[in-house]
Amino acid sequence: MNTLAQTIPATAPQRSKLYLPREHGATAMLLTPIVAVAILARAWHWSEIAVLAAAFAAMAAKDPAVLLMRQRFVWKKRSPEAAGAARWLIGWSAILIASIAVLFATWPPKAFLAVGAGVAAFGCLAILVNLRNRQRSTLFQIASAAALTSTSIATCLAATGSVARWCWWFWALSAMQATAGILVVHARLDARIALRKATAASPHFRRAAQVALVVLLCAAAAAVVFRHIAIALALALAAVGYMYDLRRQKNPASLQMPLKTVGQQALLLSSVYAALLIAGLW
Questions:
Q1: What is the chain's alpha carbon radius of gyration, rounded to the nearest angstrom?
Q2: How far is Cα 183 from Cα 133, in angstroms, rounded to an integer?
């Protein structure tokens, strides 16, 4: 009996997976514009809480939605995680629907339809791209930066009932910085993979990041011409910071740095950038 029991492996109970946003950088890109625009709007409306809840719920719902879609169209067999994913998807969807109802009741109808159509289109695109494992596409990364930072538009609508001119500038400047940050991170990931495999790193994301940095520097020069010094400083600081990261990616010791530390440094840079934009647009 004891011998038989020893030959049968004990089945450890599986812990339910938590479907929360895992990409800290993307979460910061989503939430930082909400805080910044709430400050710049110089006004407060309780529906801004609905914007925050909707943004967080939409991001959190992506992973369980992708898992269930892969089960249905790719694997075509039931995944052990499907039941948990379905429960989380229902929960996040309920929060999202409740938030949308609040925004529908408080936003101008045309603005609600325009923003809603954009969010729905990007959500469908994100799921489709993930199903096809094309989430590393450069164009998709750029689209993601624009989509994540568009929470600035939603926050301005909630706070003031319209999208102010300064908010369009804030969105554009935030998307530029976010794009550069995403591309630099992907260049680092490629370099880390190449280091482990003792092969040459793919230059794809590194070149794309360098182009993004040139755009930041050109925008900084334009800001100086128009005497927007704080904005020029923000753009130049972001460009220099990302240039430094690209340079240290050539150092094997730097590539061993934990990604959590890299993420914290990127978050600090993004926070300073946002603070300078607030100062420049105030």
A1: 22
A2: 17
129-133, 146-150, 172-176, range with the lowest pLDDT = 129-133
Does residue 41 contact residue 155 with C-beta atoms inside 8 Å? yes
If residue 18 lies in a helix (H) or strand (E), which one and from where to where?
none
pTM for the structure as a whole: 0.89
Query: Does residue 180 have a pLDDT over 60?
Result: yes
Angle of CA points 88, 94, 95, to nearest 5°: 95
Rounded CA-CA distance 133/115 in Å is: 27
Which two structure tokens, joined as six digits, stand for 203?
């230059």
Predicted pLDDT of residue 16 = 66
The more confidently predicted of residues 109 and 127 is 109
Query: What residues contact residue 34 under an 8 Å CB cut-off, 6+ apart?
Result: 48, 51, 52, 55, 151, 152, 154, 155
Q: Where are the alpha helices (DSSP H) in the chain?
A: 2-7, 24-40, 47-70, 82-106, 109-131, 138-149, 151-160, 165-197, 204-225, 229-248, 252-255, 259-281
